[in-house]
Design goal:
Shape: globular
Strand order of the largest sheet: 16-23-22-21-20-17-18-19
Number of strands: 27
Structural class: alpha/beta
Number of helices: 24
Length: 665
Amino acid sequence: MTEREFDYLMAIRRKEDTSAFEKDVVLSCTKSGWVHNNKVTEDGLAALAPYKVDNAIIMAAGRSRRCMPLSNYLPKGLFEIKGDTMVERQIKQLHDAGIKEIVLVVGYLKERYYEMAKKYPELIVIDNTEWEEKNNMSSLYAAKDYIKASYICCSDNWFAHNVYRDYVYDSYYGCLYSDEFCNEYCVKGLDERGYMTEVKKGGEKSWYTIGEAFFSKSFSEKFVDLMVKEYYDPDMKYMLWDDFQIKHITELLMKIKRYDDNECKEFDTTEDILQFYPNFKDFIDQFFQEDELINSTQRISYLSNYSDTKQYSVVATEQLTGRMHVNENLFGPSPKCLEALHNATMEDLYLYDLTREDDLAIEVSKATEISTDSIFIHSGSSDVIKTIMTIVLNKDDTVLISNPAWNYYKSVCELRHAKAAYYNVLPGKDSYEFDIKNLLSEAKKTKPRIIVITTPHNPTGAVISRNDLEKVIKENPSSLVIVDEAYLGLSTVTYDAKYLLNAYNNVVFCRTFSKLYGLAGIRMGYGLCTPMAKQVFKLDLNPFRVSNIGRKVCIAALRDKAYYNNLTKTIIKLKDDFISEINKIKGIKAYKSAANFIFIRFNENIGANDKEIDVQALKDYLSSNGYLTRLWTEGSHLSMRITVAPQPDMDKVLGLIKDFIKENA
C-alpha cells in the first residue's frame, strides 16, 4: 500500500473530503477491493492492519525546574489548562482515537500521578527509577517492553484538536516552522522520500521537532535494539531520545508531520503557559491558597539557574560482593588502617583539629618530597577536582576532556555553566593511547580554561608519557592542566610531580586514598599545586580539617609501604594473566591497563559468518551470577570495564565469559 492509498482510505474512514486525491489512487484502491460505495471494506481494513497503532507512551518523569516554584509541588504534566491537565487531555484524546493501551512513565512526584491514574483503570504506570540522573532516554528504556507501533508523547504537550489516529503509515516527528532563530532541534535536510537526513540544535527558517512522535513497529525494533546495546554509554545520561535518533539518523528513519503554532504547543515555563492561557494564573493561585506558602516558594526562584543541570550520580548497589563495576580496591586496605580505627580516641570524635600542621599533609610531603605549602587535603579527589573547577571556571569557559571519560568532569562543568570539549584516547595495538596531536589541536581551537588529563586513564587504563604530559602543560600556558592520578600506584608508572610543579605554574595533580589504598569509605584525597594556587584553592575548603580519624587511617596506609608494594605486584599479575586468557577468545580484545581494571572490546576482527557477541546480554549474565560490570560505548563499539578482584573471582568471571561465549556461539 502506498502512502497516498493509505491517506485515501483513512480519509474515507474519517468521512473527510476526498476530492483532492488523484484518480489513479482512487482507482487502485477500488480495484484492490479496499473501497466500495465510498466505504472501506473488510479487505481494506485488512490492508490497513499492519499500520494499526498498538499504544502510546507518555513520558512524565522529569523535574521541570524551569516551572519552579509550582513544579516543586506539582509535576508539569498535571498543570491544568482550559479545564484539563496536560496529561489527562492527551489520555482522553488517545482514547477518543481508539488507542486504549497507554503507558505513563513517571518519576518526579510520582505519587501525584498515581492519584490521577485512579481515574483511568486501563492506564499502565511505570516508574523510571533513573529520572534524577539521566535524561528522557531513561523513560523509554523503562518502557522498552511496550515500545511497538507506538506514539511517543511528552507530558508538556498540548494539542488544540485531536492529532492522534488509530492507524499511522510511517514513523514521524511532529514539527513547527520558525522564520526566526530558535534553539530547538531544527530539520536541516530531507531525502527524496521525505525522511530526515540532518537535524541540528538551533536554526532559523526551518521546521523544528516538537509535539508527539510515532514509532512504527520496524522503527521500534531498531530503536530498542540500539538503545539496549548503548544504554550504559556514559553520554546516555545526558541524552534526549531526539539526540539518540540523530546519532542513528541513517538507521532510525523518521518523516516530519507539519503543524501550525495554533495546533501544537509545548510549554517549557509557566510564563509560556501564561502567555498562551492567562487564566492559568487562577490555577496557580488556587493551588497556592495560603500567602505564606506562595512567599516561601518564591524565595527559591534563584534555583532556576540550575534548571538544566544534571547531578552526577552512580547506580545504587545493594550487594557487597562481586562489585567489579566501580573500581573499588577489592583487596582491602592495609590491616594497619583498621588498627588506626581501633586506636581512635574520644578526642578524635569531639574536638576539632586546630594544630598548626596537618599530620596527613606532612606524611604526604614525606612520601612525595613535595612541600606542605603545595599540598591541600580534601574529602576525596572528586572534591579536589570540584574545588579547582569551582575556583577557576567562569560561565561559558571551556574544559577539554578526554573521549571516553569519567562523566563527573562534565557534570562539574555544567554546574559552573561551562562547556565541555573533547580530545581522543584511542585503541592501539595492545593498549589505549592518548592522541596528543588531537589534544593539542583541540586545545588550540577551543582555548580551554582547563585541560583534564586522567592518567592512568578511566575507563581504558592508558597512560600519558612524561614527555607528552609536559608538552601539554608547556604549550598551553593559559590553561590549567588538571592531572587526575586517582589510579596512580596500581602499576609501575610514575610521574615526577615535583619537577613539573617547580617548572610550571599551570598544573595541579589530584590524588585519592580510595583506589590503591583501598579507603573509598574514608573519603580522603589531596591536591598538589603551587603554593600560590593552594592559597586560592583554600578559599573553597572547609575551615576545619577533614575527619580526624580518616586522616589517621590514611597516615597508617602511607606508612605501610610493604603491604601496598605487594598489592601492586599482585594486581599487575592478575591483570596480565586475565588479559592473556581473554585475548585467546575469538572476537574479544582486552587492553593493557595501568589501573585496577581491564577494558575489553568485543566483536573485534570477526568474520562475516561469525555470530556477534551480545555484550549487554553478557553483562546481564555476569550480573545474574553475582558479578557487576560496567559498559561503555565508543561509536559502534560496546565495551566492558572489569575491576581486578582476588584470584578466585577473576577465575570465576573468566569462566563465566567463556561459558557465555560457548553457549551463544
